[in-house]
């Protein structure tokens, strides 16, 4: 059984349709990256999966007992508040000290447990958010643009850690990313979203398929084209 199955998902904000007819299933241990233009519904899809947004149609079926860890796009607290990493890890629910230390170690930031949030670099803060999402030992790790604002080495090393965590724990990963060249290298599957699922496949297959190359070119150009590609079908995102 899949960890999670999405069937015919439809999401509207104040009647405006943002996602429609989204079908997707996620298996154990898969790394899936969602790409797509700004406003194409990527964050909405993740937020619907975690239950923060209510769908207006379709359904999401969780495997019984599924544990999800979520790394949000934005930090849920004011970083200027005086607070150590250890204290932040205990929000909103206190976790055993050993679990906090283990999660920080898994995210490769064990040494900053006593540091103030305000003193952390962007890369360290992302690792702390990752550690927080690992606290409940998730079967599915969901990350919304986790490398936003990081430089290229920081981005590459973050994805390497994600791959290592998948290898160590067997968790599946569903993430949104704009770092297309890294996405192509680090994902098992890439999903291009633009209100609905436009393409879904293995990155090497998508990038090397003759039809794809004919349309979008190859290499990074191809990756960029995947992101920006012209659709031959219509996207009617207006409310019906
Ligand atoms: N809470 C909300 N209320 C109303 N409209 C919303 C809400 N959240 C998102 N939207 C709108 O829904 C659409 C999809 O937004 P979403 O954040 O899911 O896109 P995205 O693909 O993640 O974009 P980006 O790449 O810019 O992060 C946008 O037009 C956005 O303005």
Automatic annotation (TrEMBL):
Keywords annotated in UniProt: ATP-binding, Cell membrane, Hydrolase, Ion transport, Membrane, Nucleotide-binding, Translocase, Transport, Zinc, Zinc transport
SMART domains attached to this UniProt entry: AAA (SM00382)
Broadest EC class assigned to this enzyme: hydrolase
Domain of life: Bacteria
GO molecular function terms attached to this record: ATP binding; ATP hydrolysis activity
InterPro entries: AAA+_ATPase (IPR003593), ABC_transporter-like_ATP-bd (IPR003439), ABC_transporter-like_CS (IPR017871), Metal_Ion_Import_ABC (IPR050153), P-loop_NTPase (IPR027417)
One GO term of the biological process aspect: zinc ion transport
Residue span(s) of domain ABC transporter: 4-219
Enzyme Commission designation: 3.6.3.-
Keyword Manganese attached: no
Record-linked SUPFAM superfamilies: P-loop containing nucleoside triphosphate hydrolases
Pfam family, one: ABC_tran
Protein name listed in UniProt: Zinc import ATP-binding protein ZnuC
Gene: znuC
